[in-house]
Write a structure and sequence with these properties.
Layout lengths: L2 H22 L3 H11 L3 H23 L11 H17 L3 H9 L3 H23 L25 H8 L3 H29 L1
């Protein structure tokens, strides 16, 4: 496919996803926040369905040899960073995706959240250049390294390589767990409807 063809395809796909996100009001932050704080599971169910589809898709591609997921160690730095990012997204009232949508709709608060997301990324890139974490790339081996505060990493690809079991098997297990959670939410909602 030519570069122009790729650009047209990306534009069409991006536009379709943008319309779906805007019309559905889908938001990753709301999926978790609303479930925990307000016992509302509308976005949570959509997130679970998306995760099931993506899990099966990615693990099938990995099994066929076409998938090439990134492998990076998870360390204390990611735990702290994701916690701070999560607080910021809850305070902003939206995840990064819905912040784009709200900005496009003219929401000034979302515009500020988006602007400071970019500023934060830029400042992080400067800090990363001068103070690389962990202390040395050699500490990122995929295995736990507590001296470097790295917990290692594991994903469907590494499980496939270590145990020789196709990645799609792990994808099926994860999808079944997500489907169980989805079904539990449906049961909870049906019980609440009966009680009301």
């Amino acid at each position: 496919m030519s570069i122009i063809g790729e650009c047209v395809l990306a534009f069409v796909f991006g536009s379709a996803v943008g319309i779906l996100v805007q019309r559905s009001r889908f938001c990753n932050t709301a999926a978790l926040r609303d479930a925990i704080l307000f016992k509302s599971f509308r976005n949570t169910k959509a997130l679970l369905v998306a995760m099931m589809i993506l899990t099966m898709g990615f693990t099938v591609f990995i099994t066929l040899g076409d998938g090439n997921p990134m492998s990076f160690d998870v360390g204390l730095n990611q735990v702290i960073g994701l916690f701070i990012f999560g607080i910021g997204m809850v305070l902003a009232g939206a995840c990064t995706v819905s912040t784009w949508v709200k900005t496009g709709e003219g929401d000034i608060g979302a515009l500020w959240a988006l602007l400071f997301t970019f500023i934060g990324m830029f400042l992080f890139s400067l800090i990363w250049s001068y103070n690389y974490w962990p202390p040395a790339p050699s500490s990122m081996t995929g295995n736990p390294n507590l001296a470097a505060l790295q917990f290692g990493h594991i994903n469907a690809k590494t499980l496939q390589e270590r145990f020789g079991i196709p990645a799609v098997v792990f994808g099926i297990v994860q999808t079944l767990i997500l489907a169980f959670i989805y079904r539990a939410i449906l049961k909870k909602e049906s019980v609440e409807k009966v009680n009301v």
